[in-house]
TrEMBL record:
Taxonomic source organism: Georgenia muralis
Source organism, top-level taxon: Bacteria
Entries under SUPFAM superfamilies matching the protein: GroES-like, NAD(P)-binding Rossmann-fold domains
Cofactor requirement: Zn(2+)
Domain Enoyl reductase (ER): 22-342
Entry keyword Oxidoreductase: yes
Identification of the protein by name: (R,R)-butanediol dehydrogenase/meso-butanediol dehydrogenase/diacetyl reductase
PROSITE patterns: ADH_ZINC
């Protein structure tokens, strides 16, 4: 039987959350707990990751966050916004009409805000690029950097309790990698060059290895190159200041070149390298968020008939991604490099990822402090 939110809602209860007010301005504030409305699921947030898009907001924003006075058309909210879209948690309340999930169940969230008239069924391949699409934790509707959040049932994905909740928080960025690989068409036996061994580059490489591809990464940081090798997500790791990456790829592929290249840096030199390393009719898959225009060698694109594709977030990819982790095919534990509480989110979270990013992959935040 579905339980109404009213059965769980206690007026006057408050929680803490990290709120984005503007560029360089994140504050820990006290807010009322969310109301769990009909069709929604109340979630006690266990862990929330700090994403590259959160860093972009902090350094250059507002980008995805609606600026003050310009509310998001669906959430109706503008800054200040509760941040956090990479999170796991435990169900604490069920809104009226929700009867296929249980209180106490472990879940992750596909953090979309999408119009009610958009088809988000299992066969949809484009709801993630629908008009006015937004993200929980960037566009409003609460976020994973608050102690609690209420989310429409459609976007809540149960996970096996055998998957630790800290590792489960990485399922969202892993789904980004899964969608990028899906878009690229990479398959078993392909040689794939990944540009950048940051969080998305590493997790995309993990999906590629799970699918049977041979993976090489090009990365400036020695620590990141070594992590790619130590975690087993890369077969080869190149320092572009020491070797000619294009020649190394050709050597490893019998002169042919890479079948697929994944751009995960938003850096022009990396984009150029990937274009040069691709074989004729290869695929360049861009998964990074570029905050400035890039240049593309169109002569090479034409002469080699290269396909250039973009990917944003995910679309019906969570079930398959979750299955890879539940089956043990992908181990997410090695990618967790730090755990902090809300009060340390700027100094030990954002500042570390901005100024010492080679030492960290994914820093997780416990909004309640549990598990620290």
């Amino acid at each position: 039987m579905a339980r109404t939110a009213a059965a769980f809602q206690v007026k006057g209860l408050h929680m803490r959350a990290a709120r984005y007010h503007g560029r360089g301005d994140i504050r820990i504030e006290e807010l009322p707990e969310p109301e769990v409305r009909p069709g929604e699921v109340g979630i006690d947030v266990a862990w929330c990751g700090i994403c590259g898009s959160d860093l972009h907001e902090y350094l250059e924003g507002p980008i995805f966050v609606p600026a003050p006075g310009h509310p998001h058309p669906l959430s109706g909210e503008s800054a200040p916004i509760t941040l956090g879209h990479e999170f796991s948690g435990v169900v604490y309340a069920l809104g009226e009409g929700v009867d296929d999930i249980e209180v106490g169940q472990h879940v992750v969230v596909e953090p979309y805000i999408i119009r009610d008239d958009v088809d988000t069924g299992p066969r949809s391949r484009d709801y993630h690029v629908s008009a006015d699409m937004g993200f929980i934790g960037l566009s409003g509707n609460g976020g994973g950097l608050g102690e609690k959040v209420s989310v429409k049932r459609r976007w809540v994905h149960p996970i096996d309790s055998a998957v630790p909740l800290d590792e489960a928080a990485l399922l969202e960025p892993l789904s980004v990698g899964y969608h990028a690989v899906d878009r690229s068409g990479a398959k078993a036996g392909d040689f794939v060059l990944v540009g950048g061994a940051g969080p998305i580059g590493l997790l995309t490489a993990a999906v590629l290895k799970a699918k049977g591809a041979t993976v090489a990464v090009t990365e400036l940081s020695e620590l990141r190159r070594q992590r790619a090798l130590d975690t087993g997500v890369a077969d080869h790791a190149f320092d572009p200041t020491q070797v000619d990456v294009v020649e190394e790829v050709k050597r490893l592929t019998g002169g042919r070149g890479a079948d697929v290249a994944i751009e995960a840096t938003s850096a022009q030199p990396v984009l150029d390298t990937l274009m040069n390393a691709l074989r004729p009719t290869g695929v360049l898959q861009v998964v990074s968020i570029w905050s400035k225009p890039a240049s593309v060698d169109l002569f090479q694109l034409v002469m080699k008939e290269i396909d250039v594709r973009g990917s944003i977030a995910y679309v019906n990819n969570h079930p398959d991604t979750i299955a890879l982790v539940e089956s043990g095919t992908i181990d997410l534990k090695p990618f967790i490099t730090g755990k902090i509480g809300l009060d340390d989110i700027v100094d030990k979270g954002f500042e570390t990822l901005i100024h010492h990013n080679e030492t960290a992959v994914k820093i997780l935040v416990s909004p309640s402090g549990k598990g620290l």
